[in-house]
Write a structure and sequence with these properties.
With about 150 residues, this protein is α+β, with helices and mostly antiparallel strands. The chain has one domain. The protein has 4 helices and 6 strands, in the order αβββαβββαα. The N and C termini lie far apart (about 45 Å). The mean pLDDT is about 90.
Length: about 150
């Protein structure tokens, strides 16, 4: 459910967008991708070069989540899945992919760019993703994230 952003929140969102346009920088951590699998498993990768030495992005070890963070993450992911049809995503949400800057692509049987939606949807959904990344930042899967040597 999208909640309209109050005036102060909208001003902060506009400032964040302007900063990203001017500098190319985004608040980290940020979701790189979320893959929703048919069996209920979710694979999350997060952008944060400070989390795993030598890696810009890393996978989240969802098996290591504490009970409270497990509940928080499940709630955030459900909110994202519930919002997808209202955003115009058809079918089951399968992927959320970082599309550069503050933008994300949501894919079911079609793909919807977050930046093409109303600013209230964009800002509130971006915040959900930022919260997912913030939780995930605490649970890096170091082994799965490091490049494999051939």
């Amino acid at each position: 459910m999208v909640i309209p952003v109050n005036r102060d929140g909208m001003a902060a969102w506009q400032q964040l967008r302007q900063q990203e346009q001017e500098t190319g920088e985004i608040p980290l951590p940020a979701v790189d991708s979320i893959a929703f699998h048919e069996n209920g498993n979710v694979v999350i990768s997060v952008i944060d070069p400070s989390a795993v030495p030598g890696c810009t992005t890393f996978f989240v070890n969802t098996n290591a989540l504490g009970e409270l963070d497990k509940l928080r993450l499940a709630t955030l992911l459900k909110d994202i899945q519930d919002e997808a049809p209202r955003m115009g995503v058809e079918g089951t949400l399968r992927f959320v992919l970082h599309a550069g800057g503050l933008d994300y692509d949501f894919t079911g049987t079609n793909t919807v760019a977050l930046s093409d939606l109303d600013v209230n949807v964009w800002s509130s959904t971006w915040e959900l993703l930022h919260l997912v990344a913030t939780i995930g930042r605490r649970y890096p899967d170091v082994e799965a994230s490091r490049p494999k040597r051939v």
